[in-house]
Amino acid sequence: MVGQVCTKGIWDESIPGIEFDFDGVSNYAHLFERLVKEYPRGNEGKEIWSRLVEVIKNKGKGRKYDCIIGVSGGTDSCYLLHIALECGLRPLAVYLDNGWSSDIAVKNIKKITSALNIDLETYVIDYEEVKDLLRVFMKGSLPWIDTPTDLAIKGILYRIAAKEKIKYILRGNDFRSEGTQPIEWTGGDARVLKYLHKKYGRVKLKTFPNYTLMNLIYYGYFRGIKSIYPYYYIDYQKKNARKELEDLYGWEYYGGHHFENIFTKFVMSYWLPVKFGIDKRIISLSAQILSGEISKDEAINEISKPNFDNSTIDDAIKYVLKKLDFSNEDFNSIMKSKNKQYLDYPSYYPTMVRFNKITYFLLKKILLKKPMALFQIEMRNK
Predict the structure, then answer these.
(1) Distance separating alpha carbons of residues 257 and 307, to the nearest angstrom
(2) 63 and 161 in contact (C-beta within 8 Å)?
């Protein structure tokens, strides 16, 4: 850990925009506590979730599906299918195949959808397009080079929801176990993607389902498609969910947060810590301390362990380079290139900061709740 450490979590001075009050509590801890009040659990949370379930059912009457859930084979998305069925919902599962899912993840998706008799729709992106976009983000020397996947997931969920006339997307995000990442570490949007692709790209994008601001307005406002985050309200702990999935469906664990995707595993365990000195575990473990999932001592012990296994990392890098058509010389040059961040490129972020109040007013017409990005903007721009 670096410099001063938050007295409540393990947020430290390596995190952009961090500040500490007189008691040594960080603004990230205060933000977490604000989010807990905004999205309550317990009896109040259960009541909110119950009302949302009834709204989803009513909107979906007469249709084959009343909600859509993106699945990756990971804990959060697979357990969300389980929860949806328990509540009497009729979800359509959607899997985005970008060519990087682990075998375990694919098997997990098949196990859970088959056992629950849930229809699965798979969208396959032409791999040459995926490869081109991941290459351009690496050449752009950004921390979160998995932005294309994030955008594609959002884009395809909206497209399929509109096609099937589904009004609600259930998302498996959980700030209590994941925390809120600084924009400098994980920022990325369609404007950045278009800029980098124009600069470095060599393949025309035909199958890539981008997610632009206009997409958000069209699908959210004109088509009335809303996102709901069940884990914000129901009592959910990842380790308990994992065991239940294993016991009920023979689901298998893949070794770490987002490690169900091979490229994301490379980004989290090698690219971020080695090139940028970024350890995202600081954020997630801090959130888990405040949510009561782990103790501070357990978090400190976990963060002291290396991000990757020295005995396997060389093979992992070779696999990534081969799949992306990078030579060792290309990769070494990229690793040594000047580090950039999201804010160094044209993006939607400056507009969101400048017109925060107006943006929130407009987004309220589109979204059910304020986006996490706006909470962070308020925290960082008081």
Answers:
(1) 12
(2) no
Determine, yes or no, domain membership for 114: yes
Q: What is the pLDDT of residues 269-314, one digit of tens each?
A: 999 999 999 999 999 999 999 999 999 999 999 999 988 888 788 9
Strand locations in 105-171, DSSP E? 120-124, 168-170
Structural domain range at position 48: 42-277+309-347
The candidate with the shortest Cα–Cα distance to 281, out of 257, 313, 297, 262, is: 257
pTM of the model: 0.92
- In Å, the largest CA–CA distance within the chain is 58
CB of 38 within 8 A of CB of 70?
no
Q: Is the dihedral of CA 278, 279, 283, 284 positive or negative?
A: positive
How far is it, in rounded angstroms, from Cα 367 to Cα 224? 9
Instruction: Give the model's confidence band at 131: pLDDT under 50 very low, under 70 low, under 90 confident, else very high.
Output: very high
DSSP assigned state of 267: I
**CA–CA gap between residue 17 and residue 80 (Å, rounded):** 33
| 208: its two tokens | 């890539």
The pLDDT confidence band at residue 45, using thresholds 50, 70 and 90, is very high
CATH classification at residue 210? 3.40.50.620
Residues paired with 170 in a beta bridge: 69, 228
Closest to 209 in 3D by CA, of 294, 83, 63, 96? 96
Tell me what pLDDT residue 256 has.
Answer: 62
Q: Minimum mean pLDDT among 22-36, 69-83, 242-256, 363-377: which range?
A: 363-377
